[in-house]
Target: 5-formyltetrahydrofolate cyclo-ligase
Amino acid sequence: MNKKELRTKYKTLRSQLSNEEVENLSIDIANQLLELSIWEKSYYHIFLSIHQKKEINTEFLLNILLGKDKNVIVSKSNFEDNTLQHFLLTDTTALKVNSWGIPEPVDGIPIPEDKIEVVFVPLLAFDQSGNRVGYGKGFYDKFLAKCNPNTLKIGLSFFSAEEEIENVTTADIPLDFCVTPTKVYSIKK
Model:
C-alpha cells in the first residue's frame, strides 16, 4: 500500500480503539521500551500525545524517563514551514494545546537537534524496513535529518509492521526500532 492508503487505514483502526484500549496498549508499549538497551543516554525527545487522535499515551514513557532522571525534550510546531523547535521539559515548563490539539511548550530552554540522543517518533504505520507514515506534513523527517547520524529513532505503534510502504522517498528517514504492545522491531540497515 502507498502512504495515502496506509494513512486512511490506520487512522480508521486507531479511531476504533476505546480509550481504555489506548491506555492499556500504551502501558504495554512503555513496558516493551524498558527491554531496549537505550537507557544509558542523557537526552530523549518525546512527543506529547494528541488525545483526540487516539495517539499512544506517552505519559507512561515520560514517567519512565523522569524516573531515570533523563533530560526530556519536547517540541513546538511551526506550521508556516513545518519545522519543530525543541525545548527542555522542566518543572516550570508551561504547556499549551495548539489549534491542532498538540500539547506544546510555550517557551523554555532551547535544545539543538544534534544534542538529542534518542527520538521517540509518532507514526500511523511503519514497514519492516523501518519506513514510517505520519500525518504527511514532514515535521519529523525534517527534524530527524538535522539530528546526529547516531541518534536512535524509535517509532511507537499500536499495530504491527506492514510488509512494505510503496512510495518511500529519499526524504523519508527510517527508524532504528519500532515498538508495539507485543513486539520490538529492530530494523536492520
